[in-house]
């Protein structure tokens, strides 16, 4: 079996990241979000547990989106570096 091309490895990773994004997003539905909200130590933003958890889940989701996009840029470079949006019509 031949080794996968760089582009194919990126494609597989992008699919894995898409699954991880869905799992991270589902954390916002966790039962703990219907529980008690408590204050956190000074200096936290948001200053209470549940909004702070939600904000960090959102950041994790956005970072996964960015990683997936960056792997797409690797694939784009492997294909010659031209965005599908910049191609002549």
Structure at a glance:
With 89 residues, the protein is mainly alpha-helical. It has one domain. Helices cover 57% and strands 0% of the residues.
Topology:
Elements: H1 6-26, H2 49-78
Helix pairs in contact: 1-2
Please, could you describe this protein's structure?
The structure is a single chain. By secondary structure, this protein is mainly α. It has one domain. 57% of the residues lie in helices and 0% in strands. The protein is built from two helices and no strands. Helix 1 packs antiparallel against helix 2. It is elongated and about 50 Å long. The chain starts with 5 loop residues before the first helix and ends in an 11-residue tail after the last helix.
Helix-strand sequence: HH
Poorly predicted regions: none
Instruction: Briefly note the structural class of the backbone.
Output: mainly alpha
Strand content: under 5%
